[in-house]
């Protein structure tokens, strides 16, 4: 409700928490780098100007938390190829303008292809029902939060002319890869509350142990973020690779069990390239054998050359930004040649992309 929202935006509480953060940083006595892995966290941090009230030597950066940004060019090319063959391709608005090797889905639509922007997987299945004589492909992107609803549609007997081109990604393995990168310096993770509502925070137990890095699951209101940061700084001060759920009103240890079961009934993990970052084992979600008949890659012979793509244009540092090694304003193209109207890299296309969020909220939040 509105009251709840206000409670989590209370300026007095925010001030108490920033004082607590300052005190913790004094105790730690050296700069601290925190990574979060969620576009919604970046939006909250930028929108409420939280970086301006954080202690100076506490850096909070967004890692690979934008599923659209890490969608690989050949995946976009596959969707474009299907659309150009006269099939209906439905996808989320965020994906529409992401450049492929030669064109985006928006370009394909300008040239006459039938590309539809939808808000959900079920809306894409409805199109298939309305157009029984056409093949309708849902180009599915996003992390666990959107993969679960895709799975729900596939388990509820969708029309036969419906299929899924999955570019769904799974966050935890990407956190592992980023935690291991020699040039990425992360003292702790602010784990994404949204993904954890599905998978549960228990998932991070092995992670904190194996990578000896603390993690705190946080929500998306200013107080949630500040509170989660304070818990994380306590772990860092105590040199403890602890795990805490600071978002208990939405996240449990087990998560949403039925949604999780459905997710793993429909999807398997496989290794895949995350655009600009790395080839990440087990971080792409593909349809399982039981659902292969709904897999667009099984159903159609998609003619794309996976080697043709140049993953990022030369001056775009989107990959470094998503690996926590740079900020958008370090990119020479930021807000100049690269804008949301005319994006060079995927980080400027998606509403979850760091570059777009920074530009939207005033350049250097
Ligand atoms: Fe890439 Fe544009 Fe971001 Fe620069 S501003 S890193 S070109 S997306």
Automatic annotation (TrEMBL):
Recorded GO MF terms: 4 iron, 4 sulfur cluster binding; carbon monoxide binding; iron ion binding
Keyword Transferase: no
Pfam families: HypD
Keyword terms of this UniProt record: Iron, Metal-binding
One Gene Ontology biological process: protein maturation
Record-linked InterPro entries: Hyd_form_HypD, HypD_1, HypD_2_sf
Keyword Transmembrane helix: no
Signal peptide: none
Similarity-based family: Belongs to the HypD family.
Stated name of the protein: Hydrogenase formation HypD protein
Native source organism of the sequence: Halorhabdus utahensis (strain DSM 12940 / JCM 11049 / AX-2)
